[in-house]
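Hi all, long-time lurker, first post. I run a small reading group and we've been trying to get comfortable going from sequence to structure in the token notation. Rather than ask abstract questions, I figured I'd post a concrete chain and ask someone more experienced to write out its structure so we can walk through it together at our next meeting. Sequence below, copied exactly:
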Amino acid sequence: MRVSTKAYGGRTITETVSIQTNDTSQPHLNVTLTGFVEKIVDISPNRAMLVGEAGKPLTRQIRITPQKGYPMKILNTRAKSGEFIKLRLEEVKASGDTSYLLHIENLKQEKGRYNDMVFIETDNPKLPQIQLYVIGNIVEK
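-- Answer (accepted) --
Happy to help. Here is the structure in token form:
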């Protein structure tokens, strides 16, 4: 049994699997796995919503904070498409802790919607890549 814990950090998850046996007294067994998923990184907000008027500047900031016991450096950021967004990463140090601000800028100048994904590569082997959804909705002036 494999359980994906992606996006469950800081929560308890429960998964059940049904097993068929050749034992006539117990032809079916249900096995339940319950466990707490440790949070490796805090991402706030967990997606970028770029909603605004065409022709006006539009940016969002995403704060990425490694949790205690899970140090990491962000090595690279890239967009899947990158057609309508520009990325800039800023390292922020406060009280000896490091976090990152990912600035996402809208490049679409006309009315319309788009979706993209940002891939954030880290040096932490437990979380080598973080995926972040970007949703754009540019409306008329």
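A couple of things your group might point at:
The chain has no helices and ten strands.
The mean pLDDT is 94.
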